[in-house]
Predict the 3D structure of the following.
Amino acid sequence: MAKKQKQGKTPLSGQALVEKVKQLEDLSREEKAKECGYFTLNEDGSERISMMKFLNALIDAEGVELDGKSQNGNGRGGRNASYRISVQSNGNLLIGSTYTKQMELAPGDEFEISLGRKHIHLKQITDDED
């Protein structure tokens, strides 16, 4: 026979959760979870700490993405940036749109190229440098 459970206080989430956890730095994980409302009370009065719910809420509140789903809302998957490129057969280096989007570059942005022994440095040219 399953024990009936009722929820403790309303669990914290978002920034309120992050701030509360920082305030409770001296407590154990279980005590932090309980203080943040991640527990249920059994019919016999005993408590059950909901550690997975607590940890998942904390991960979400911190903005960590573990399941690989994009947060940009377009619902499309795609390739992840590897931060590596290869010289193409025609001798060109192609920097993909993943990198230019991450750097918030727009068509027409210009760069000064500096060559090192084994590196290339790009310095963006701004309007006030013209």
